[in-house]
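Hey, sorry to bother you again with one of my protein questions. A protein chain has come my way and I'm curious about its shape. I'm sending you its amino acid sequence along with the backbone structure tokens. I owe you a coffee for this, so here goes:
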Amino acid sequence: METALEAIFLGDRAQLEALLDEDPELVRRCVDADTGPYCGYFHRATLLHHVAGNPLIRPLPANVPALAALIFGPTITKLAG
């Protein structure tokens, strides 16, 4: 999860895509932390929560819509199939 989050924060689409290909269940995982930005409303945040943004963590990269599409991709494929 931490590697995927770092890819999101860096805007590294290729890395995020590789991680999701390797482990599709990553889209369902939640951050285990409950301190700092992860207490309160961001507790148990998923990758999708992170592409929506939390200014307490760090700014989002300009390509965040493309990153969100990667996260939604498997879900959209399942719904369409």
